[in-house]
Specification:
Elements lengths: L1 E7 L7 H17 L4 E3 L21 H13 L10 H10 L2 E9 L8 E8 L5 E6 L22 E2 L4 E4 L8 H8 L5 E6 L4 H14 L2 E6 L1 E3 L10 H4 L6 E10 L5 E7 L3 E7 L3 H4 L35
Parallel strand pairs: 1-2, 2-3, 7-8, 8-9
Antiparallel strand pairs: 1-13, 3-4, 4-5, 6-7, 9-11, 10-11, 11-12
Helix pairs in contact: 1-3
Length: 314
């Protein structure tokens, strides 16, 4: 048995430093309760850009520019020491951490933001960085397109883990790329919630015969900074919940084991039998004995994409 924790808490929206420190504190808290795998929501640092679903495209250009500038400055640069408090907490507590971040590109233009999910091992190192392949609808005005570089299943002390972000989980080939690497704990940080989403998580668990941990964004109006542009217009004072969370844990049989945790901030901490992910495949193994490689074949390019390739002729 392995103890896992889903963190359904709000960040300090648009404040990278305070949110990272909060995440480190939360790692300490749930690790003391025995958690060995700790999962944070989509874009937790420094918050999911919920405003994009309410700002008028083109019409609210000024506020959009101001907010995006603040998001850019507070996005995580993985080449820096931004995440040091979280890395230290993971190593100190001997835990694995999966966390959604707004990642600022540090190699190319250095001004593109990606919706990324990182994996921190129990030695306090970032061992995987998956960038969301296809931002959804207005998200494309915030985030660049990811690539297959982070489509990896990582063997940890808890089990073999991998992640897809929000509506990437509706992409059959993306899911299959993880199934084919023997995933046991499938992690889905998301802004989505509700019955339809939970049904999708149950389907993925049954299809992949894996544990599914869906970590939702719990966000209230009070979580926005008081100087947030157009706050009253976008979020009237009588509106409490901007997003309800809805975190849930599903077994390889598709049974809901815990959650959904809705309109509530808290943590789901439970023991799971990781071995069920293997034994459940006796009847159905979509990437193994139930596959037909003579008929279907999937090729995945894990190259980190770049528009520029320099050749040194000297």
């Amino acid at each position: 048995m392995s103890k896992v924790a889903i963190i359904q808490q709000a960040p300090y929206v648009l404040d990278k430093v305070r949110t990272i420190n909060k995440a480190a504190q939360l790692i300490n808290v749930v690790a003391e309760q025995g958690a060995k795998l700790i999962v944070f929501p989509e874009a937790f640092i420094p918050g999911y850009p919920a405003w994009i679903w309410r700002l008028r495209p083109g019409g609210d250009w000024g506020p959009s520019e101001e907010i995006h500038g603040r998001l850019l400055k507070n996005s995580v640069d993985l080449s820096s020491d931004d995440l040091k408090p979280m890395l230290t907490a993971a190593k100190k507590n001997n835990v694995t951490v999966v966390c959604g971040i707004n990642e600022r590109d540090h190699k190319n233009s250095q001004s593109t933001i990606y919706n990324a999910v990182i994996t921190i091992n129990n030695q306090g190192r970032v061992i995987n960085n998956h960038r969301k392949l296809m931002p959804t609808n207005p998200e494309r005005m915030v985030w660049g397109f990811g690539d297959g570089h982070g489509l990896n299943v990582i063997d940890t002390e808890v089990g073999k883990i991998g992640s897809l972000i929000c509506w990437e989980n509706y992409m059959p080939l993306a899911r299959y790329s993880l199934y084919s690497q023997g995933i046991e704990i499938y992690i889905a940080p998301t802004y989505d919630s509700g019955e339809a989403w939970v049904g999708t998580m149950q389907h993925i668990a049954r299809e992949g015969k894996c544990w599914v941990l869906s970590c939702g964004v719990a966000l209230e109006r009070k979580d926005f900074p008081k100087d947030f542009p157009m706050l009253d217009e976008l979020y009237p004072k009588d509106e409490q919940w901007i997003n309800p969370g809805g975190s849930v844990i599903v077994s390889p049989s598709g049974e809901i084991i815990s959650g959904p945790l809705s309109k509530e901030k808290g943590n789901i901490i439970i023991d799971i039998d990781v071995d069920l992910a293997a034994s459940s495949k006796r009847a159905l193994d979509v990437a193994g004995h139930y596959s037909r490689p003579d008929v279907f074949n999937l090729q995945v390019d894990k190259t980190r994409q770049s528009a520029t390739h320099f050749t040194n002729n000297s």
